[in-house]
Amino acid sequence: MHRNLELYGAPLARFIVVGVVIALCCWGVYRLLRRFRVGDEAASGYALITPWLLGLLIFAAYPILFSLVLSFTRYSVLQPPEFVGLENYRRIFTADPNFRVAMKVTFAFAALSVPLGMIASLLTAMLLNTNVRLVGVWRTIYYMPSVLPAVSTALLWRWLLVPRGGLVNKVLGGLGLPEPGWFNDPQWVIPAFVLMSLQGAAGNNMVIFLAALKGVPAQLHEAAHIDGAGWWARFRHVTIPQISPVILYHLIMGIIGSMQVFTQPMFIRTPGRSGLFYSVHIYRTGWEYLQMGYACALAWVLLIVILILTCLVLRGSRSLVYYEAAK
Amino acid sequence: MMRSVFGKCVIYLLLAAGAVFFLVPFVWMLITSLKGPEQAYQLTLGLKPTELRWQNYRDAWAALPFTRFLFNTLFITVTATVGQVFSATLVAYGFARFRFPGRRVLFVVLLSTMMIPSVVTLVPTFLLWRWVGLIDTFDPLVLGSWFGGNAFFIFLARQFFMGIPVELEEAARLEGASAVRVYWHIMLPLAKPLMLAMVLIAFVAQWNDFLGPLVFLNDFDKYTMTLGLRFFEGSFMGEAPKWHWMMAMTTLMALPVLLIFFVAQRRFVEGVSLTGMKG
Fold first, then answer.
1. Of A7, A70, A95, B101, which has the maximum CB count within 10 A?
2. Does residue B279 have a pLDDT over 50?
3. pLDDT tens across A289-312, in order?
4. To probe the interface with A, which of B33, B82, B100 has the most A CB atoms within 10 Å?
């Protein structure tokens, strides 16, 4: 009993104190801004985002700036950092063969897994949004893979995709299809990872798509139906525009997530550098070769690549995404 | 009539084909969890009924203090999830509905915080928590999510709020209701289906988190379930891997989450008050 109080009571008390402090900060920001004659709308807006602003300073700005500083140093953790200027960045673009491999692997994975994952989860959500029987059971089945810890799914897929005797290849062979080498064949490593990712991603994305599909007004579908729109026309001109904010969300999250895949490639051995994802490259550089400064530089390059991609997507989508409130 | 029957058949066929693909790892896990130690590494799915070793579950649970691990995991999961869902929706409401100088820039900053590879912020973050003296407590695993929680959720909730027509809150705002009141009494009830999805996602993420507990917890008494699982993987304590135990524990960990999902998914179907609001 005493141990339980010590284990859970003390942290809980701290959490409540932190919660109250955050609330007081919000209130303080509002009062302060109002005192300086800031309008009610702007002051409320700032007050509402105060928790995030605090978190930004503590849990994002500080670690990120710290890693930026480290990216200009040689830092082995054991000794204090030593300033080397732009040397790390020069090395990335001219003297690191693994950098190009890692970029290629990561981009290939992202280019396959993002669109496929999106189509798969949207299709699943739409199938589950119809009036099928036992809809709860179906939904739960499709959600299953995403509740398993990554350690376990990596182990399971290593078994399933064993080239000789693995279940997947047995099925393919039985159907008279070629049996790829999956994780043993450099050509098939990326498709194997994509196959794995489809299952895990589909669960969570399916839930969000489902929530979005439920939000599409039934009247719109009925009106389109009365006007003689077929299944495809309604999907194309009613469903897609209505859920376009959520599609944009999935696109951006998909790009960001797939560029940072880490756990699965860490647990699955692949031949040569065929499974050298960018995050794995960063991790090995930093934690295995103890080149923290260089790892930070690598991370910053990745950060900028992702930032550019996201900006392109946001810009390109501006005319394509429909917001009810913006009307 | 024929057409709709045909359509139904296609839907069921597609659903069943997908279900097989999604069920295979799960079935494999169940079967391995019932195998003896010497068969656990075999690739064949085959399992004679005489070999069902239900005691794997009891043995695995007893091999380590899993009851303690369960309470630790529950504590972290619940507190972090609550903090994440409420703070993320609050911040998202601010971003979605209030015009203030710098909003666009801040939102781009929000998006870019998601792009930081966690491998790299880990060390500075660790140093920060060590400086506060809260290493080997649950705080580093929970408190981060009380500050706007998760940028993913803020983005998601903002998208959701922007899809809700403004008329309702405008009326309330004109009558002088504060932003927090509108958030609590109007926005949150509307966002119920979304919050349910967020709770599920946050819960699963915390429940299965591996890296966080690995880095921040030292005391065996504070370990979580996933850290316990790792002991069966084989690379620790110089013992033979116990994959049958690992799969048994994974099954036990997955069951409550699946149960919660199975119960909660009905809410998506029924409780969407949003639909009537539009148009």
1. A70
2. no
3. 888 889 989 988 998 898 899 889
4. B100
Domains of chain B: 64-230 (1.10.3720.10)
Partners of B95 on chain A (C-beta within 8 Å) are 45, 48-49
Classify domain A90-317 by CATH number.
Answer: 1.10.3720.10
Facing B115 at nearest CB: one of A43, A141, A303:
A303
ipTM: 0.83
Residue A27's alpha-carbon distances to A23, A44, B102, B154, B179, in angstroms, are: 6, 9, 20, 20, 11
Using alpha carbons, list the distances in angstroms from residue A154 to A29, A157, A267: 47, 5, 6
Phi–psi pair at B98, nearest 5 degrees: -115, 130
For the record, the structure tokens of A27 come out as 């209130």
For residues B104-131, give the mean pLDDT: 81
pTM summary value: 0.81
Residue A286 in contact with partner chain B when CB distance is under 8 A: yes
Rounded to whole angstroms, the Cα distance separating A173 from A278 reads 33
Predicted confidence (pLDDT) per residue in A201-230, tens digit: 777 778 778 877 877 778 888 888 888 878
Cβ contact, residue pair A67, B121, below 8 Å? yes
List chain A domain ranges.
2-70, 90-317
